Predict the structure.
Amino acid sequence: MPEALLSQKNKKIIKDGLWDANPVTFQILGICSSLAVTTQLKTAMIMAFGLTFVTAMSNVVISCIRNFIPPQIRIIVQLTVVSALVITIDQILKSYMYDVSKQLSVFVGLIITNCIVMGRLEAFAMGNPPWKSFLDGLGNGLGYSSVLIILGTIREIFGSGTLLGFSVVPKAFYAAGYVNNGMLVLAPGAFFLLGCIIWIQRSLSRYVEGQ
Amino acid sequence: MEHYINLAIKSIFVENILLAFFLGMCSFLACSKKVETAIGLGCAVVFVMAICTPTCWAIKNFLLKKGALAWAGLPNIDLSFLIFISFIAVIAAMTQITEMVVERFSPALYNALGIFLPLIAVNCAILGGALFMDQRNYNGPESFVYGTGSGIGWALAIISMSAIRKKLGYSNIPGPLKGLGITMLLTGLMSVGFMCFAGIRL
């Protein structure tokens, strides 16, 4: 009997990506872009959307052709599929959201080498049917997105006092001597913040490395 | 000459590709547990970047840029949308060659690097270096200096991190912070240190 589209097992595939095996905090994948694009919430959201799309779609494509890929050249095949999808995203961004594509600069192109995409292709799509792979890609993409959105929100509010470009910190705060924490916009702030998020997430899910 | 030295200093210290642009974090975190592995991987990345960045520059300028195909009698063709796919193909091919060279001359290093050698192909530092070269319109020699410099900067960061982590083995760290968490915080501190280089030039 065919499995229901959203059976218990399939739901678990999505949930794994979101929490128990979150790609950023648990599998240590895709750290680069999650730090670089999160100075503002807007860029973080667009990046999150782009990556979720690429992960889910490339998982489906690779999973459909997985029985025809010779194992020796699978990395090249995977890279070709992924770069075709990334070129699509890049061209769409350039034509409809030129400012954002300028801000994201090289990081859209770097989705190609984002370890989440390659990691999921290797670990899941090469051995599972298309629908399951789609769910796995979606789950991991959303897990990555959630970390990105948390980081983006914190960094934008406390780093520059705005959210999605609107200022949210009341003028009275500045009058009383409140200063934006410029550190959060710079590179070190991103490292510290992600370190703390990982600490919190692992404390909650009771995961300890090396045990 | 001075210009190139400045560019090298800038790409190694001031705009360190790892600590300022976050590129190549995944293998940085995964391979910095042992000093020997870190040194091996660092050298491999320097080698691959030193070759890939100028190669990508040549491909962009003689094949892909708008009007670049004029020498073939096709001055109106703009293939720049193919930049991603051709750059990644160059990098993947180079990685394959590096892998063969390392396997031939240093089987010990080959075994130590294991899965991470083929993964240099998806190390974002290398593609990132090539894409920055494209975005900043470096010329031929500049792209070589920039590629080598960025590679050295990355190697410097991973080697120092592996030394710190070795020392860290004696510390009592809270359970959930072990491994990835503490490494992130340390990278943050290193990044603060490297910010001191800002503005240095000859």
About this structure: Chain A has a mean pLDDT of 82.
